[in-house]
Amino acid sequence: MRLAFTLLLNLMLILSATAVHAQQKLLRDPELYERQHFEKRCESVKYGADFISRIDINNDGITDMVVNEGSIICDGDPGPDCSEEGCPYNFYLQVKEGGYFMIATAQMYGYDFIKRFGNMVFVLKMHPKFCDRTDSKPCEMTVRVKGTKFLTISKK
């Protein structure tokens, strides 16, 4: 009886998590969505050349999008949400039916998008605390996006 209850509880948690994910609103254009956000927030806003990157982040053949908020100048303030831990980056996946949804946001210094063992992976340059370190050298976290999840391959 207790095993059946545990299985039922686990099934309910899985279904509720799936329902929340399924209810996320698809965005037709994340770039427009992000620009509108900063145009409401700032009296004057400028976007750098690397504000938007259009790349296939999950190796499914569909172009996705990465937004670099560090490339924004809001009312003369470069990267208004940046700190000593880096700047916000938002990762959007495009679905084959049309539209995008955000799968992650991360505070980081930057990234390289490279091919390893046949798959494209990110090497995220982050604050050393994300590698459980206290020195000043940036943490390099290698991650692969599989489906809709970031999978950490290594940290150094």
Give a topology summary.
Layout (H helix, E strand, L loop, with lengths): L1 H22 L6 H12 L3 E3 L4 E4 L8 E5 L3 E3 L2 E2 L8 E8 L5 E9 L1 E7 L2 E8 L12 E8 L2 E7 L1
Antiparallel strand pairs: 1-4, 2-3, 3-6, 4-5, 6-7, 8-9, 9-10, 10-11
Please trace the helix and strand order, writing H or E for each element.
HHEEEEEEEEEEE
Structural class: alpha+beta
Euclidean distance between termini CA atoms? 46 Å
Name the overall outline.
Answer: flat
What does this structure look like?
There is one protein chain. By secondary structure, the protein is an alpha+beta fold. The strands form three sheets. It has a four-stranded antiparallel sheet with strand order 2-3-6-7, with helices on one face. The chain has a four-stranded antiparallel sheet with strand order 8-9-10-11, with no helix packed on it. It has a three-stranded antiparallel sheet with strand order 1-4-5, covered by helices on one side. The protein starts with a helix and ends with a strand.
